[in-house]
Structure formats: structure tokens, C-alpha cells
Amino acid sequence: MPAVESDLSQLITGTPLVKLQRSTPYRAADVYVKLENRNLTGSGRDRAALNMLEFKEAEGAFAEKRAFVGIDDGYFGLSLASLAAIRGFDAVIFRSQAWQPAVTEKIQDLGAHLEMLDDQLTFTEQIEAARTYALAHDLPFLDPFSDLANPSIHAVTTGPEIIESLGRVPDAFVAGVGTGGTLTGVAQALREQKEEVGIYAVEPAQAAVLSGESAGHHYLSGIGYGFIPTSLDRACFDQAIVVDETKALHCQRALAINEGLIVDSGSGAAVAGAIALAERLGQDRQVVVSVTASYDAL
Length: 298
What we know:
Number of helices: 8
CATH class of the largest domain: Alpha Beta
Low-confidence stretches: none
CATH architecture of the largest domain: 3-Layer(aba) Sandwich
Number of domains: 2
Helix content: 25-40%
Strand order of the largest sheet: 1-2-10-7-8-9
Structural class: alpha/beta
Radius of gyration: 18 Å
Order of helices and strands: EEHEHEHEHEHEHEEHHE
Distance between the termini: 38 Å
Number of strands: 10
Mean pLDDT: 97
């Protein structure tokens, strides 16, 4: 029988790894999806949010007031709001008007204070607005794009979970780049066990900044924010796989039909990149890809 947990934050981490059955081409490598959408709020951002919050608490950042400011990337705000409710914090979440209204309502239901931002602001401008507010109110600022507590949690949990589930280090790991935390942390964990493991970053063709292209507009959730985050170790991956928005959306739909798997569009891009890589690698190889969320942020 499952153990009784002390609070809902204990449901974060320990997500399953599932092999795709009907989506990979003949004679391609096996593709396994790490279901980060099985975390508490339906998003892998929960891991980073919890670790960042606990790091701040250990540093004494909440000695005078249990309150913080966070920037929402479409998923991180819900993670923060949920943890604030569970752990007894006051949360101020900066969130773009472009994000899903239904998720905005959930954040409000959890008791967080929302500062809604003009959807014409670039994401770096949104981060700066939240940072300025935090400084003005002398509150800790939680930013997954720059906080190294983000990749570190994936190095000590997500990566080792993959190795334990497979019983070995996979031949390749693929993740879409949003904050960069998952790719960086998992790469560190896997390469500590097998240096030659292939690490691949997926980005939208419409905002392929890792490939040296300019940041354009796209509708893929959770990846391609138009800049290279500090949380991403640019030396950790071997190649950036560029996936067109149309291909990503097709893969998102195909996963639902062929596998019964509901994912966000950014994860559709990541899986499309993983399947293309699996075809290239061929039989008797193993590719693991991270599925970030079960809903679209846009």
C-alpha cells in the first residue's frame, strides 16, 4: 500500500517512465517518455519550484516574512501558488495576460496574488518587472531561468530516476529547452555514469536561438522563450534539434491518438525530436525524452 504523505508536496518527483508503443518508426531506437506531467500540478516545473523554495528557506530568506515573488512562464506560477498554499507562504505571481485564463483562475483559487502583465512585453521584460517589484518590496524572487536550484534538483532526482527505471543509462536524452533546468540537470546525472551519452536540446524553428537564429513568435508551450536562460549549461548538450511548430502540433495529436498520452505542445516538439533521433540511431538503442506538462499554457 502507498505510504501516507505528510503534505501534497511529497507527491512531487518519482514520475514514471513509459515506452512508446505505436509512435516510433520501424527499426528505430526505443523511445521512453519521462512523464513529468504526472507531478502535483501537471507540470515538471513543480520540481524546480519546490527545490528553489526550500533553498531560499534554508538560506533564511523567510526569517522575517513568509512571502515571495515569482515569475510565471505559463507553468511555474501554478507550481509556486500550490506550494505557497501547502507550505503557508504569501505568493505574488507575475503572469502574462497571454497565458490560459483557466490556469489564472486556479492560481487565484490557491490564494496567490496575481500581477498581470501586458502580453506585448517580451519575456525578459516580464522577468525584469517581477524582479523590480521583489527588490522594491524586499522579498525573495523565484526565477527558474536563473536559479541554479532548478537544474540541481534534476541532477539529484530526475536523472537518477531515469537510470533506476531503465536499469541503465540511456543512449540519448532529449528535452525541450524552456528554463533549461531539466536538460542541464539530467545531463549532469547521466554523464556522471556514462560520459558518452548523447544529450539533445529541442527548440522551436520559429525561435531557434540556440542555433543562432532570431527569436520569432510561436505557439508552442513551455519552450522557446526567445532568450538563452542562465539555468541552461550550453556545454551540456551535443546538438540542438529544431522542430517546426506544425510538426510539433502533429506529434502532440498523434501521441493522444496512438498512445493515449495527453501532453502540451512543447512536449509534442520534444517527442517529435526524440522520434527523429531514434530513427537516426536505429535498433537496440534507447532514447529518453522529458514530457513537461499535460496542458498548454497558451
